[in-house]
Amino acid sequence: MDVPATYNDGRTAQSRPVILRIEAGALVILDSEGAAVDRWPAADVHLVDRPGRGQPVRLRCGFDRDDRLTLADDQDLDGLDRHCPGLWQTTPGWSRYWRPVLVWGAAAAVSVVLVVTVVIPRLAQEFAFAIPAALQQRIGEQTAEQVLRLLAAINRNQDDTNRVCAGQAGQAALDALAARLAGGLDEPVALRVRVVDTGMVNAFTLPGGHILVLRGLLDFAGNGDEVAAVLAHEIGHVARHHPIKVAIEMAGTSLLIGLLIGDVGGGTVIAGLGQMVLTSAYTQEAEREADAIATELMNAAGYDARHLGAFLERVEAREGEPSDALAFFSTHPPSADRAHTIRTNARRGAPALTDAEWTAIRAMCA
Hints:
Layout (H helix, E strand, L loop, with lengths): L1 E7 L7 E8 L2 E5 L5 E6 L3 E3 L9 E5 L6 E4 L5 H5 L16 H31 L4 H22 L13 H15 L9 E5 L6 E4 L3 E5 H6 L3 H16 L2 H20 L4 H6 L1 H7 L4 H18 L4 H12 L8 H6 L6 H8 L9 H8 L4
Parallel strand pairs: 8-10
Antiparallel strand pairs: 1-2, 1-7, 2-3, 3-4, 5-6, 6-7, 9-10
Helix pairs in contact: 2-7, 3-9, 4-6, 4-14, 6-10, 6-11, 11-13
């Protein structure tokens, strides 16, 4: 079956008359002398658009080529219908795009995961030691205020004046203990240790040397040596700049997510740090570093670091019980060998606090 048509190669504006020969499985385009110009597989022939009654008919081969065939009348479609199964499909279906969409989508997802898990942590590690102490102090102050507000909301206590315990004797004993422990560091650090009146068993180290010890931890501790060991562990995080590293990672991740969803406001990054502090945990590597420094500081001060291992074991033993002790477990993930490593490197020592100091610290929130 031969049908007269007009052919445009898609590269120039010129069109030329041709003969469209319909063969089994193909449309052959012939020039005026009968020479083959092109051969279109019948399965790839589609309408460019649906013609009106008596209007010219435009055909295309696939959806990537620019050449076109034009038939004079829509009545010529009658013969094509039987040979070209996809004739009336004027746009490519979803099956044309799902594979590249899947491939590029997977590549984008992998890229985001690599940025979040590899690139941002490495950059955070480098920047953590370069951020000025004054800036870390400001970040720590803002984060501490957020944490205190969140803890007050958890306790349904909106009285800001009662969030931080103000017992003078206990605060003096705690500050003196922190100073004795920090004296074993190679480089001095500025510390601000506060006790927060909430029953959760936890302690948080924030950028700039801010350490928040929760009353529940004091209640849970078996003696003042366990509190001293936990405080030494938190000072270890300060010494290794873990808090500001985590803050940089959080900010970088939040910024990346903001770019993806169209929210690039810096306020959302800062505003979320407090909540992230309450729900995030350090890596096992960071916890081991803090344990090692805590053991060194306890040894240097003449105290017994084995109390840190005992504290961790008691916390881990209560996993699954309806207890606020699990708050420490969730943000300080223990490992099977941490307590053993601490005991291996610890030396016996004197009590870190006198009975009077320990009593004063425990009474700070009275």
